[in-house]
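Standup notes, structure subgroup. Blocker cleared on the adenosine-5'-triphosphate input:
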Amino acid sequence: MHASPAEAIPAALAALPAAPLCVGYSGGLDSSVLLHALAASPAARERGLRAWHVHHGLHPDADAWAAHCAQVCAGYGLELTVSRVSVARDGGDGPEAAARAARHAAFAAGLGAGEALALAHHRDDQAETLLLRLLRGSGPDGLAAMREWRDCGRGRLWRPLLALPRAALEAYAREHALRWIDDPGNDEERYDRNFLRHRALPLLRERWPQASAALAQSARLQEEAAGLLDSEDAAALAQVRSLDPQALSRSGLRALAPARRARVLRRWIAALALPPLPAQGVARIERELLPARADAQAQFAWNGALVRAWRDVLYAQHLRPPLPHNWRAGWDGRAPLTLPGGGRWRLDGAAGFDSPLIAHARAGGERIALPGRAHRHSLKHALQALGVPPWERERLPLLADADGEVWAAGDLLYSARMDAWLRERGARLEWVA
Ligand SMILES: Nc1ncnc2c1ncn2[C@@H]1O[C@H](COP(=O)(O)OP(=O)(O)OP(=O)(O)O)[C@@H](O)[C@H]1O
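Run returned:
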């Protein structure tokens, strides 16, 4: 175990895969230490070390903080990126949480492919995070608290100081006579983290001097356990998954143990980039959507997402209104066509159609001349035969020629002519609902 950033940073860099390196620099004590230790490392500079300051625009001194960061970086000969973000002051969880969300969104959007963003979280931050998660009633994934590595946009977050106590960073800052900014927000005890830092943890340490180290150790053990659970969840999800990533087998889910089922459902929702299921979400799905005789209309909606049961599948999707009945748009296939209410159509592998087609909503009663069939078929029956659920049919755009002949329904059905046209060119249509 390393006792100081001066030892921890070179050791961590030696184990770091070759990747561009950036440091999240707020100007506070912790990230000033991290920046200094990285700037002193030839291995970090070889990776093109740069610094990144997110300007939240919340505090009256925020401009001065950014100027301080620029001055320090110039002194080290490092490039500094300053990103301004807009923070909703009246967000439900307070300005601190809103600033954090905006900062992480900026990181996720701005990191280069494979780039590592070093953050200066340390062992005492980890202990606070674990306590916060315990007090929120988190399970093993949450209690693993902060990982040393985590994916972020196209890059990754890296916390090379996570094993060091705050005191080691303070000693380093004194030893190197660093200058840093004291954010007055860090003392406000109405924020939970500050309450733990200034009141709860000092009290715990009176009786258990190693409290922070022990809490961080617990988080590490939880991370190991969560890793094991995670691979088992992935295997269980693969078992119940169908070809369509938005669909799971209801009978397959029923066969899983309830605790596993809950984890698989959460993992599936996260993989679809839908908002996390609320606390009662799993119970509602279990009760209303999983039974073999679930009501065909049953659904569970939360934060713009929806899960429903249909035949043997459980479907999850973003909540979207049906296509407006009167919607029509010319489309030559050259650029993607944006559909009302979100979603799009794209022609891949060909420059465009020979002559523009007309995209429109279904009116009912359409027929389509399918490949290899002598007669036109009812579109509705063809979609039913494909197992397309009713709500997906409501959002399904049609593509027709000037004579009203249907050429395609989303990317689910092609007419014989469209099929031949796409095959000749090795092209395909891609529809996102
Ligand atoms: N404004 C900022 N610009 C760039 N980096 C920042 C900024 N604020 C924080 N960081 C980086 O994130 C690290 C952690 O800061 P802070 O404890 O405020 O984090 P957080 O993102 O709110 O995380 P958590 O709530 O998980 O502790 C800092 O040490 C620094 O590396």
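Discussed briefly. Residues 328-432 form one domain.
Next: hand off to the docking folks.
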